[in-house]
Amino acid sequence: MTGTKIFMAIGALRGEHHTFMHDLESFFWVLIWTCVHWNGPGKERQKESRFTKWNYAHTEELATLKKGEVDDEKDFDMTTYDGYSFPAAEGGAQTTWGSILG
C-alpha cells in the first residue's frame, strides 16, 4: 500500500484490489481535507480540526473513522457544514460523495 493514508479510499485501506473508484474517493478525501483546513486566500490555514486524529490512526482504524463520517447522510451533512471554513465549498462535498457512490 502506497500513498498518504488520510487521503486513501476506505476500500484501499482495507486491502481491496485497486480500482478507479478508489481514485475518485481519494479525490473526495483530498477535497474534504482542503476545505476543512483552508480559510481562504491570504489567510492562515486551520491547523487543528476534528480530522487531525486521522494523521495518527492505524490503517484499519482510519478506515473505520472514515466510514463513520459518511455512513449517515444527515450526520455527514452536519459534519461538512460545521467543518468547512471556506464558505464557497459548502454543499460541494455532499454532491461529490453522492457522485462517487452513484
Q: How would you describe what is shown here?
A:
It contains five helices and no strands. It has 102 residues and is mainly α. α2 (20-37) packs antiparallel against α5 (92-101).
Write the layout of secondary structure elements.
Layout: H1 10-13, H2 20-37, H3 59-70, H4 73-83, H5 92-101
Helix pairs in contact: 2-5
Provide key terms for this protein.
mainly alpha, 5 helices, globular
Give a summary of the structure in a few sentences.
The protein is mainly alpha-helical and 102 residues long. The chain has helices at 10-13, 20-37, 59-70, 73-83, 92-101.
Task: Look at the helices and sheets and give the structural class.
Answer: mainly alpha
Put simply, the count of helices is: 5
Radius of gyration: 13 Å
Q: Into which percent range does the helicity of residues fall?
A: 40-55%
Please report the distance between the alpha carbons of the first and last residues. 26 Å
Basic shape: globular
Mean pLDDT over the full residue set: 76
Taken in chain order, the helices and strands follow as HHHHH
Quick one: how many beta strands? Answer: 0
Major sheet: size, sense and barrel closure? none
Unreliable segments of 5+ consecutive residues: 86-90
Percentage of β-strand residues: under 5%
